[in-house]
Write a structure and sequence with these properties.
The chain is built from seven helices and two strands; from the N terminus they run αααααββαα. By secondary structure, it is mainly α.
Length: about 350
């Protein structure tokens, strides 16, 4: 089985960093006087609901892909184990049949020592004229006798035929055993090759599912980023238009006479408000403009930092993917090495048999 675990630490870090960025954006909307409204931030809540649905759908798809992969791999392993057990059972049965048919006790060299019919098969006192047991004191043989010459020659011829036939049978049995062992070795090699092909196919399918899930996740993140940037540009443009409209139609540029009316009567005006502005007012305007410029620079700096952080996260994700791919390559090489060692061991066992 292969390990399909993803780097959990990077995933958790990315999720935590994403929530922090969303919280900062929400705080910027709440504490910004241009964007803040009275009541609940409906737009932020809807966006959070959409983000959570997309994240749950992505996680569910990945979980289903991993579960399907695990079920398929378990089925393949169970099938391979059943085939291996069946082959071992057949091999043991063939060995037992061979022992029963070709290795009976009567064919052993020391059978004569344990033969229950040994006394019945024992030699008589005199077999032939040259029997070394027949000494002078036994009076079993006299000079000039050759009573068993024909029987002796016939027995020798029969014995020679039996020896020749036994050697032929032994050679045929050895050839048959060698052919059977070669056939079993070839069947085992084919089974191992087929198993390696099935495992390679399962690994390729798993890698394809992982790449597809990663691609969908990255596309969802990119769409989310594009939507946020578009909303931000639209909001910034609306704010700029509103600010320009306020300046153009404001009391300062239009010289609204209502601001110059005096509290002592409608026919009296305040001369310092009717035309021109005081140095304090001019300084206040310049200070406000300087504050707006600094605020704009600060917002641009934050946007640039967020973009840099996003690029850094994307680079880290790519680096993690490369590390995962290298780890899979090492696992594949280790599996091939173990398979080669298993083949060598099986070959040595077959040769030893």
């Amino acid at each position: 089985m292969y390990k399909l675990d993803l780097p959990v630490d990077l995933k958790q870090a990315a999720a935590i960093e994403r929530r922090r960025n969303m919280e900062k954006q929400r705080q910027s909307r709440i504490f910004n006087a241009k964007e803040r409204i009275i009541g609940v931030d409906v737009q932020a809540l809807e966006q959070q609901v959409k983000d959570r649905e997309v994240r749950e759908d992505t996680e569910a798809a990945r979980a289903e892909a991993f579960a399907a992969d695990a079920i398929r791999n378990d089925k393949v392993v169970v099938l391979m184990e059943k085939r291996q057990e069946e082959d071992v059972r057949n091999l043991n049965k063939a060995v037992n049949d061979f022992r029963k048919n070709f290795q009976v006790p009567e064919t052993r060299r020391e059978f004569d020592l344990n033969d229950p019919e040994g006394l019945k098969k024992d030699k008589p006192a005199r077999l032939t004229d040259d029997d070394p047991r027949c000494g002078i004191s036994g009076v079993q043989k006299l000079d000039g006798e050759d009573l068993n010459s024909k029987a002796r020659k016939k027995y020798q011829q029969e014995q020679m035929r039996e020896w020749t036939k036994a050697q032929i049978n032994e050679r045929n049995a050895g050839d048959m055993n060698q052919k059977h062992a070669d056939l079993l070795y070839e069947m085992k090699a084919r089974e191992l090759d087929q198993r390696a092909c099935e495992l390679a196919t399962a690994e390729e399918e798993c890698r394809r599912q992982i790449n597809m899930a990663t691609k969908n996740f990255n596309m969802a993140q990119q769409r989310e980023k594009d939507e946020k940037e578009a909303m931000k540009r639209q909001q910034q443009q609306d704010d700029n238009y509103t600010e320009l409209s306020n300046h153009i139609y404001g009391d300062m540029l239009t010289e609204n006479p209502a601001v110059a009316q005096s509290a002592f009567g409608a026919h009296r005006v305040i001369t310092d408000r009717w035309k021109g502005m005081s140095p304090e007012q001019l300084a206040d305007v310049r200070n406000r403009q300087e504050q707006q410029r600094q605020e704009k620079e600060r917002l641009e700096m934050e946007e640039r930092l967020r973009n840099e952080e996003w690029d850094k996260q994307r680079v880290d994700a790519d680096r993690a993917a490369v590390i995962l791919e290298r780890r899979e390559e090492r696992l594949k090489k280790e599996l091939e090495r173990q398979q080669a060692q298993e083949n060598l061991r099986l070959g040595a066992e077959q040769k030893a048999q």
